[in-house]
Design brief:
Chains A, B: GO terms for molecular function: alpha-glucuronidase activity; xylan alpha-1,2-glucuronosidase activity. Chains A, B: Homodimer. The structure is a homodimer of 717-residue chains. Chain A is an alpha/beta fold. Helices cover 37% and strands 10% of the residues of chain A. Chain A has an eight-stranded parallel beta barrel. The first copy, chain A, has a six-stranded mixed sheet with strand order 2-1-3-5-4-6, covered by helices on one side. The radius of gyration of chain A is 26 Å and the shape is globular. Chains A and B meet through helix 2, helix 5 and helix 21 of A and helix 2, helix 5 and helix 21 of B.
Chain lengths: 717, 717
């Protein structure tokens, strides 16, 4: 997979010698020469004559992809036949286009795969069998083609084997938090790839590669703009720009959504109110929506953050979230558009435990939302912490469409300098048992619509993509974009199988590489939790930028301070959310309450999330809580060092530019892990008044020093 | 030069098919396979055994470059010999290292080339002749190597020919206007390539390519930060980051400068004053400077913008520019550092014609600046307008070091969407006759120190570099970076010869390509002047962002409005700067005054810069002024269309991604040229009350519409 570079001769004076090696731009689509001769022959044969059963823009996109792959695999371009009866070897098309050559049973089987599904395998045409890829729609053919390409890349292709697949989630969506000035909120990979100023006239080729990358992992929807929205995106000038992007994405099966600022009728409509029940407001949104559809006939809809963190919303007018959402949904409905309404709401005027506020708001409204509304719920009730128990709303509303919001960008997880593979976190959430609405319910089964029959299903992820050449800042952060797509397509996939596939496509099929990179990936999440927020600690990051530790952060609104969350005092640490505390635990099903209400029974990873526990509380391994906290922080640092060793051992097998890139970042990660450990332990020791266990590396440095660190230009704010 | 791409098969639905074609990243260093067999044999022979007469980091950089070139030229790496007596074919080293094999005459000739000079040609060693590159210092060897590489790329190498060169300007410097949050003031190529947050731990390979590109065109100094400076760059944390960059650049002969905020003693030093005569302030700067040199032993010095556009400076304390500059110069002097002080000063409290203010400030201070101070003067007296007469200061101070400040980034020249090759503008300025201090003086001869004997010479350019993959936003803007380096090395070079070299290195040696791209390059500057500000018009751009026309911009301080500069009224148009007007013309030498004081004699390109002229004023071709203005605007649009046609005719000979990129931008440029023409002519017609000439394309649209256009997120502000 990787290439030999003469540049690997290291010069003592250069970190990397140069420059024109593998910069990571090609992501998991860095097609390489096929070394296996048998496979090469077979693939060459297929590519020598390809027939498409129809014509449409998506097939042109597929041809483009086959060209790119073929040029790299076998050093020449594929041939596309105009006449299927000549001598085509490889057939692609929709079930309908194939109908004359498929049996009714075959057709029914394929039809059952749904609109994004596909089938590939041998098809008999006029007495001969030909390898074929068949979708119910052109986009299914596209997904099938990407799957086929991956089988070649991973050397697992056999043209006699049948394979079919279809997504379990209808909308697999990226949420860009990109501002119109190209800054990206919580972006750590440079700036926004949307060059608004030069749109619509200038189409950056990167837009196409972005669409290719998304389609290759099944992502089919994108919200272009920040949820902290700017109403200007809804002006005609910006609609034309958004249209240009939608035109690029359409052949790749990707729909465009925009964020709607609830107060837009006032900002760009000249109205004095944004009251969702006001007829002028209703008219504004109807006309605005009609206008958008005049530019983008398949526009996806709006994504809205309302009445949260200062964003405008229906509460200003005494209306509830359903009234706000439904008004917008009504404007979209005639066009088949969707209204995605975020459940991430909490207020500085609300004294109730922040953990409870979203559930308190939305549970009573269950069933009051229109059919084309989806409530988009973050994985946990606080805010994308390194580890959160699942959001209670996944259990508590079941007469409303619900969707998931994951965060791919690593706001609280080391940003662009820490290697953290997030799929294990997402898998943990998706497999969490909600026990509601049914005893077997999990977050994943709720999202798939299995529990409620909801048809408009959604998994969204906050993008980690920016202008950095490798798209994601950290090369390994590509694995999170990749894994997000895979889990959104199939929430039952495992983080381990995704890690293996990503590694093979990105680095090498070499067994040592696959195994060692896999080790790094799979340990990385728990490692980060250990050195950041072990045992259920949360929200103790630096203020505002969330970079590095800040357990001492106080001042301003209570729920933006760290002590609000860790509640450390001379007796112990942790947030009592049981019935004796805030009561947030009782928003979950009784079975969950039962499992978690006893500090001796709750999985220790959630301990301090739900319980305030004495420093000498004894854990299952016999350690006291204080000791265990110290061991976790120390273990996090040690694990980073082990990741470094493992990576170093791969030097000869990884492209030198990629190797150096990751090596440098791992060195930063080690420093940052030590910083987290030292700062947090020194800080918490001021409450515990206990010595550190003697068998850990003793925290160095001075608490005042750590508190004094300032990052005035940290990215992503 | 260009490559064949299968991707060139255009699909109707895609602007560019993809993606992995030539994205312009390699600039003029996109080394290609040598097709000429004779040359290939000769080059292969040389590269088969290379001997360096010494060891140092710059030689490692040269080896790296030779590897990159060799791999592309002949498909294999060069061999570096440890023993010169074995069988080396190609020798590199300094004059001193070569001393045993060079005659005293040869040594003297090379020595005369100065510290950055080099010589290449055959050298006799033990009875045989070998091709050699010899510098006075290692950096000369580096410059010689880049020159040698260019001769291979342009197929002009002969190993029997001697060649030597040395720069005419000592400091050839890029000024980055990059902020610490990575925005770039007047940046149109994305964001700052300095990833401050991840420095010093993470060294982006792009830093090395940046250094290579600069060294390849002779640039040897860089100011990293915006002249509208942030004092944080002078904190220890940021010094460590700057040191990391300095370490990368050092082997390439590039020195780092930083911008110093005059009020830094207050912002980061805890002082209550920044008075340059205050002993605590003096002490602050001395310690700060010492600290910088502890990190960067060859630190270049400070670049300062003071008492201009709201920046702090010595005037707050009743001190003049010399007192401010000298205090900083004294802090730098023990370390051999330079203090570069900008002459771009004007005040909203000063009623005097802005054109005159810098000269008024600095002329009386001539001779009062320390030896290690350079006054950096913009090419013209206003602010990087599409065309300005040369700055009077180039004639009026001659007992002080003066340097040039060009603007490479196209703030007023179409930003990232207009193709404008700036070398003709710079050439025009450099060749302008100042008549002072001597009758033969030109701006160029003053800068070279020929007139005053000044030794510390400087040509600086405001960088057009950003995170865009092709570095400069517009592929053709690379030609401006290139040309800047070439002219800073040799201010007597012509824009035509630079255009030819850039084209050959960037696109192809094919004669048709060289000739047609040359046509486009050489017409582009006059074209932009025509559709923006013909006949001496200036500063009529949109407010603040300077994007597009804004001759109607009024309100706020007078010298930031357009009518201040165009002075259009019912009688005529233009700024009377003769003795009857502001008198600015009299800041020039009497010979200049004589040439320019009569509106019938002044070159028409400067007419409205110095004269208020009636609408019916007759020009040399018999047209009235009003007609001539209209013809110029119209001509600008027509020329853009001609550039489009010329470019289109090259489609088969240019890499498809590059072709599409430029084609899209030319289409935008055509629209913007029409916008300029229509908006300006409709606006000026409200004063002239005359019809447009019937033989021009009649301005379309409505003035109110053009005035209503808003660009709230235009880049670069």
């Amino acid at each position: 997979m990787f290439k030999a570079y003469f540049l690997s001769l290291a010069l003592s004076l250069f970190i990397t010698l140069s420059s024109f090696a593998n910069d990571g731009y090609k992501l998991w689509m860095d097609y390489q020469k096929i070394e296996n001769l048998e496979l090469k022959t077979e693939v060459s044969d297929l590519l020598s004559n390809i027939y498409f059963f129809g014509k449409n823009p998506t097939y042109e996109a597929i041809k483009n992809e086959l060209k790119l792959a073929s040029d790299s695999w076998i050093g020449r371009s594929p041939k596309f036949s105009q006449e299927r009866l000549t001598s085509a070897k490889f057939y692609l098309g929709t079930r309908e286009e194939f109908s004359q050559v498929l049996s009714l049973t075959q057709q029914a089987e394929i039809k059952a795969l749904g609109e994004d599904g596909y089938w590939m395998g041998p098809v008999e045409i006029e007495g001969k069998t030909y390898f074929s890829i068949i979708g119910n729609k052109p986009v299914g053919v596209l997904y099938g083609t990407y799957k086929w390409i991956k089988t070649i890349q991973t050397n697992t292709f056999s043209k006699d084997t049948e394979f079919s697949d279809s997504p379990k989630i209808k909308l697999r969506m990226l949420n860009h938090w990109d501002n119109l000035d190209r800054t990206v909120e919580r972006g750590y990979a440079g700036f926004s790839i949307w060059d608004w100023h030069r749109l619509p006239g200038y189409i950056d080729p990167r837009y196409i590669d972005y669409a290719r990358a998304n389609a290759s992992i099944g992502i089919n929807a994108v919200s272009l703009t920040n949820v902290n929205a700017n109403a200007l995106i809804l002006t005609t000038d910006f609609m034309k720009k958004a249209k240009a992007l939608a035109d690029v994405f359409r052949p790749y099966g990707i729909k465009v959504f925009l964020t709607a600022r609830f107060s837009a009728p006032m900002q760009i409509g000249g109205l004095e109110t944004a009251d969702p029940l006001n007829s002028e407001v209703i008219d504004f949104w109807k006309k605005k929506t009609d206008e958008i559809y005049s530019f983008i006939p398949d526009f996806g809809g709006f994504l809205v953050k309302a009445n949260s963190e200062g964003q405008p919303g229906p509460h200003e007018y005494g209306r509830n979230h359903a009234e706000g959402a439904n008004m917008l949904a009504d404007a979209l409905s005639p066009h088949g558009g969707l209204l995605i309404w975020r459940a991430f709401v909490y207020s500085h005027e609300d004294e109730v435990d922040r953990h409870m506020q979203a559930n308190n708001e939305f549970e009573p409204l269950d069933g009051k939302f229109k059919d084309n509304v989806i409530i988009q719920i973050k994985n946990g009730a606080i805010d994308f912490q390194p580890r959160e128990p699942f959001h209670p709303l996944f259990g508590s509303i079941n007469k409303t469409n619900v969707g998931m919001e994951f965060q791919i960008t690593q706001e609280y997880l080391g940003q662009a300098t820490n290697l953290v593979y997030l799929a294990p976190m997402w898998e943990e959430v998706l497999k969490s048992k909600t026990y509601k609405p049914s005893p077997a319910s999990t977050v994943g089964s709720v999202l798939e619509g299995k529990e409620t029959g909801q048809k408009t299903t959604l998994i969204a992820g906050v993008s980690n993509i920016g202008t950095d050449r490798n798209w994601t800042g950290h090369l390994f952060a590509q694995s999170n974009w990749f894994a997000f797509g895979k889990l959104a397509w199939n929430p039952e996939a495992t983080s381990a199988e995704i890690a293996e596939e990503w590694t093979k496509l990105t680095f090498s099929q070499n067994q040592e590489v696959v195994s060692k990179v896999g080790e790094i990936l799979l340990v990385s999440y728990e490692t980060a939790v250990n050195y950041m927020t072990p045992l259920g600690l949360h929200h103790i990051m630096g203020r505002s930028h969330h970079y590095g530790p800040g357990p001492w952060v106080v001042g301003g609104r209570a729920d933006w301070t760290a002590p609000y969350y860790h509640q450390a005092d001379s007796l112990g640490i942790g947030f009592d959310r049981t019935i004796d505390g805030s009561g947030a635990l009782n928003q979950y099903a009784p079975e969950v309450v039962k499992n978690w209400e006893d500090p001796h029974q709750i999985p220790e990873k959630y301990l301090l999330w739900f319980h305030h526990v004495p420093w000498d509380f004894e854990l299952s391994n016999g350690n006291t809580l204080w000791e265990e906290i110290a061991y976790h922080y120390d273990q996090g640092v040690k694990e980073v060092r082990q990741m470094q060793k493992t990576w170093d051992s791969l030097e000869s097998q990884i492209d030198p530019e990629e190797f150096d890139h990751v090596k440098q970042l791992l060195a930063i990660q080690e420093e940052e892990a030590e910083w987290w450990r030292n700062a947090c332990l020194l800080y918490f020791q001021t409450f515990s008044n206990r010595p550190f266990p003697s068998d850990i590396e003793q925290p160095e440095g001075n608490l005042e020093y750590y508190k004094s660190l300032m990052f005035p230009n940290a990215p992503g704010i």
